[in-house]
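DATA SHEET
Item: assembly model
Revision: 1
Owner: S.N.
Input lines:
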Amino acid sequence: MKFIDVLRTVGFYLFALMTVVPAFIVVLSRNIQRSVFALLFTLFGVAGLFLFLHADFLAATQVLIYVGGVLVLLLFGIMLTQKMVGGDLRSGKIQFIPTLVAMVILFSFLLFLIFQTPWHSKGPADFDQTTTAIGTLLMTQWVLPFEIASILLLAALIGAVSIARTRRTSE
Amino acid sequence: MNWVEPGLYHYLVIAALLFCLGLLAVLSRRNGIAVLMGIELILNAANINFVAFSYYVTHELGGHVFVVFVILLAAIEAAVALAIVFAIYRHFHSVEVPNVNVMKG
């Protein structure tokens, strides 16, 4: 095993830990702000895993949209809906133990399925640069879903604004 | 088979774990925004699976295109769901999910 392979393996496990351990904090922490900042690390970890899978465009998109967009949106949501001075940032859980048991069972079932199924793995692919190829695919084979997605984006924008707007006249 | 070197199974196990944690958050957290974070975890687990299968099994970029759409949908979902959370907060003065138990507008 060459040195670069050792380095790659160690890096993979570091990113895997960076993904999984904060995910536990997201679920288990009672402080909702701590959950959001743990989610930041999970999303960065997933971007790192994408890099290990030679998905450079997706790693960049992950950081840009999730960390730059969705996470900031969630932070805004928390800051606008929690009473910061009153100190009720804590939020508990309901029916935690039965759900935990069900999830452990589900996880072991998924593990069983993962290791039972013959996946026909052909080994690692040699993706060069994915951005050009993804752009070509989006404009040729997937052009209809691409356009529908843009219409959906417009509809969601209008819908979000009209839901979140305060209606002073009707009340 | 070498189990230390990262392969398809490692990514699948990570994704399964993320999926179960996300579902746990969706089902057991009281805060509406924490439920949204659980949904993000679930979508990320699906994305890892798409990219891992694209890299190890199909050797095509269709999975990557699908992940682009999933990320787009996640952004849309976060925007609309947060708008709903704000509307709920204005109406019930709380974002705790168990408090929202009437459907009267």
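QC remark: The radius of gyration of chain A is 21 Å.
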